[in-house]
Structures are given as C-alpha cells and as structure tokens.
Design brief:
Largest sheet of chain B: none
Radius of gyration of chain B: 25 Å
Oligomer: heterodimer
Number of strands of chain A: 0
Strand content of chain B: under 5%
Number of helices of chain A: 9
CATH topology of the largest domain in chain B: Helix Hairpins
Number of strands of chain B: 0
Number of domains of chain B: 2
CATH class of the largest domain in chain B: Mainly Alpha
Chain lengths: ~190, ~140
C-alpha cells in the first residue's frame, strides 16, 4: 500500500514536470526540468527494483544529457518562439496513439505477476545459473557483460558511430565561423 | 472485465502511456527543434519505465545476491533481463540525443534559426528561386 502511494506520488510529480516542459518557452528552464524528470524517473526505477538502471538514468539522463543540451543552447537560441500552428491535429494523433497503446495493454499480464511469460523464459535461467557460472552477486552485471556480451559490444559500436557522427558534424565549426567573420568584414 | 484487481494490475501501464503521450505531443506539436529533442527524451524515459515495470515481481527485490553467495531460496528476485536491455537502451538513447543536438547546431549555422516553420519558409524560398533561375535559363516566360 505504501509502495503504491510512493509510486503514485512520484508519477504525479513526473506528469507535472512533463506538462511544465510542454508549456515553458524558456529553453534553459526546459532543460533543467528534463533533468528533474530524469531524477524522478530514477526514483521510480528504484521502487521498481531496477537499481542499476536508476543509477545509469541519474548519471546519463540528468548529468550528461543536461550538459549536452546546455552546450547546444549556448550555440543556438534560448527562447522558443510561439507556434503558429493549431494544436488540434497533434492532440488528435496523440490521443489516437495513446488509445491504441492502452488497448494493447488490456491483455497483458498484470503488474508484478510472478507467472507472466516475461519471468519464465531466459530470465529464470539467468537467475538460476549465474551464481554457479560466474560467482558474481549482481545478476544484471553478469547478463550485461557475459551472457549478453555481444549486445554490449553492439552498444559500444553504436556509441562509437554516434561519436564519429557528432565529430564530423561539428568539426570545422570554428573554421567556418572565422571564415564567415572575414566575409562580413570584406563586404562591409 | 474492469474489476478493481484488473485496474490496479494494469494502472501502471496506463500511467506510463500518459507520460509517453506527453512526450509524443512535444515531438509532434512543437516547432522548436530543442523542444522536440526534449520531448523525444521524455517519450524514451517513459518507455523505459514501462518496460522495467514488466520485469517487476510482487514482493521481489533487486536481482543482487548476498556477497557471500549464500542464496536464500525463499527470496524472490525481480527479472534482471529488462534491466540489462534498458541499460543498453539508455546509452544508445544518449548517443542519438547527442547526434540530434549536433544536427541542430549545424542547422542553426546554416539557417540561423531552430524553428521548424522558419526553416521550411527559407527552404521554400530557396526552391522557388532555383526554379525561377532554371526557368530563365530555359527561356520560360517570366
């Protein structure tokens, strides 16, 4: 009962933050709110027993992501201009998508059911075998680094590709800017 | 069908769906590109929580054994597999976010704005001028 109360409180804080993000037009505030959202979701993840994920979400979502967004803000704009389009069609799209997702959840096993299909497959084997196989207490670490090590290798490849992409996009930023400055001087 | 047990057992899916849809609304309705990326992150975080909630077992605890590895068979552990998958997804998410932000910086450099409407306007004007030039070259009526 207490757990339900905590979950609901956290959830309503999350919704309030998300709505504040939607309405605010000061992008600095929006980025800070996104950090708050990440920390709140990390708390909710702890109550869902996912401590490793909560740790990562707090470090990546509230830390690295905020830093990246703030550095983007310094290179671009701080204020969002008011939208000229009517919000009617987006609202319609969002409602339809939400209704479809909720319809899809109706035949899902209920929350916390120990006999749901998700608990009986590979996960049960990982939990049963990992103490004998690896002698490492944290099962999440075992699965991440050993049983599913190739997944993690793929993840590293994705991060590498994204890093190369960012470098290619931003390299020469300063050079182009300096060139632009001299162009202006020549024309004026 | 809609008894209290059913509602309590499925409520968390619906609540996370609401969060997802607020994020989706930001992506679809807002013209500012940074706001779109923030909306995408909200959507992502909501999906992560939805997915993790599938792995939760009632009365379970975090899937970490005691350090002396003396495992009490009565203790119920939550499902570690969704946690692993979402750990990967979080890192991939930050990679896509950083790529999107780098693209926004380049767009701002090229168009001097990060509002979708203004970018579209500039692009339409560019295409119009290009068509005009091509038409002139081919001797079309001005």
């Amino acid at each position: 009962m207490v757990e339900l109360l905590v979950d609901l409180t956290l959830f309503f804080m999350l919704v309030t933050t998300a709505i504040a993000i939607t309405y605010s037009r000061h992008l600095f505030g929006v980025v800070m709110m996104a950090g708050v959202f990440s920390l709140l979701s990390a708390m909710l993840l702890v109550s869902l027993d996912a401590v490793d994920v909560a740790f990562t979400e707090a470090a990546v979502g509230a830390g690295i992501s905020s830093v990246l967004m703030l550095s983007t803000l310094t290179l671009t704009a701080r204020i969002e201009k008011p939208s000229t389009r009517s919000p009617l069609i987006p609202l319609l799209v969002v409602t339809a998508t939400g209704a479809a997702i909720i319809y899809g959840t109706l035949d899902m096993p209920s929350f916390g059911d120990p006999n749901s299909p998700a608990q009986l497959g590979a996960a049960a084997q990982y939990l049963a075998n990992s103490p004998a196989d690896m002698h490492i207490p944290n099962v999440v670490t075992v699965v991440l680094a050993s049983y599913r090590g190739f997944d993690t290798l793929g993840e590293a490849a994705v991060v590498f590709t994204a890093g190369v992409g960012v470098l290619l996009l931003l390299s020469g930023l300063r050079r182009r800017r300096r060139r632009g400055d001299t162009d202006e001087k020549e024309t004026s | 069908m809609f008894e209290l047990d059913f509602i309590l057992g499925h409520m968390n899916y619906w609540l996370f769906t609401v969060l997802m849809m607020i994020g989706l609304y930001n992506v679809v309705a807002k013209g500012n590109l940074i706001k779109k990326v923030v909306g995408l992150n909200l959507f992502q975080a909501a999906v992560f929580m939805f997915y993790i909630s599938i792995g939760k077992v009632t009365g379970g605890t975090a899937p970490i054994f005691p350090t002396d590895m003396k495992i009490d068979p009565d203790v119920v552990y939550s499902n570690p597999l969704p946690h692993v998958l979402i750990l990967t997804a979080i890192v991939v998410g930050i990679a896509t976010t950083s790529l999107a932000l780098a693209l926004i910086v380049r767009i701002r450099e090229e168009f001097d704005t990060i509002e979708e409407d203004e970018i579209l306007e500039i692009e339409t004007e560019m295409v119009r001028k290009e068509n005009q030039a091509c038409g002139d070259v081919m001797g079309g009526a001005t």
